[in-house]
Amino acid sequence: MPPIAALRGMRDVLPAESTAWRWLLDTHRRVAEAHGYRSIDTPILEPTELFERGVGSGTDVVEKEMFTFVDRGGRSVTLRPEGTASVVRAVLTPRLDQELRPLRLHYQGPFFRNEKPQTGVQRQFTQVGIECIGERRPDLDAEVIETGWRFFEALGIGRVQLQVNSLGSVADRARYRDALVAYYEPLRDQLCDDCKRRLSTNPLRLLDCKRDRRFVADAPLIWDHLSGESRDYFTAVLARLEAAGIESVSNPRLVRGLDYYADTAFEFWHESLQGSQNALGGGGRYDGLAELLDLPPEPGIGYALGAERILIAARAEGVAPSPEAVCDAVAISVGEAAADAIAQVARELRRAGLRVIVDTTERRLDRKLRHTDRLGARAGVIIGDDELAAHSAVVRDLSRRSQQSVPRALLADAVLSLVGTAS
Known about the structure:
The protein is α+β, with helices and mostly antiparallel strands. 36% of the residues lie in helices and 22% in strands. It is built from 14 helices and 16 strands. The strands form three sheets. An eight-stranded mixed beta sheet has the order 1-5-6-11-10-9-7-8, with helices on both faces. It has a five-stranded mixed beta sheet with strand order 13-12-14-15-16, sandwiched between helices. A hairpin with a 4-residue loop joins strand 15 and strand 16 (402-407). The protein is elongated, with a radius of gyration of 28 Å. The mean pLDDT is 92.
């Protein structure tokens, strides 16, 4: 029988990659919390109607990309394809917005879309995101964008380009939708099958199609269909971004793939991601989403960023951390009599904050030390018959190939001094 492999589009994060993953997730948490965002975690499995109503039944996500099935109770459920609808449900159902306004929340975790796997695109993928729910102000739009910008700065990723646009109000988008339909309808026979369908269900998505890109240049611009209020709001957002020292590019063709977006929309692009997948992530304002879910109306804005794509950019710029050492020290026994003593030494060192692996195998000492090198440890702590009798241990500096005998009572301090910092 062939070996069981991971499903297509689902990949393992192996130990050598874990350092970079932890660095990314911890950095986002730190930056988000520095801006006042608190952690939230929602279920991976949700009722299908949450996304059909919230994301939009005419979107590619709902029509083609969701992992949906019927559970044993006969209810249609879906592996979450995005995070915003779940967060809005989670906080507005118990009316947490009545306790604190606006609600500032951050999240991280796995999401699922049945897309064609390619570089930076998997069927199971990880996102980090924030949501600011309960107030509508240009400074909050700018705050959300700035949080993402500072996150990339904290990672050391440069060459990030901020693309911004306004999708206007519901009435603005209705006027723009009519203008797009009037423009594309005479071209229907030349459109791809997806765009023929989008022309009836979600005309804004025609601007994002790569196969029919040749028609986009002459398509109507949304700015020409925005109300004065929508223009003023977007101008205020841009002014606040400029005050924060964040350069942006106004992109009138930028649309987002989910129906709930209104007014401010944005994406972070990076040159290491070419073609149609050049965005590290993005977001926007979604003031009508709560009503679509039959929840109390509350405005909101947020973003979601793709961890896999960010790591591609980080590696391209050489800022992703290398795999860290497996441990700080290896506690090695020489002879069976020292096994219990070396295990106790390891416990004492762990209580001091060190990462310690125990080696009580019967291999020769030189082979044990070579294995210790492969683990990346800085120190080897060795106990044999002589050390048992003297109630001491040998502490070996594995980088300098020097060693010293240390009384057991002083062992933790000696290893800590050698290692430099506890993990």
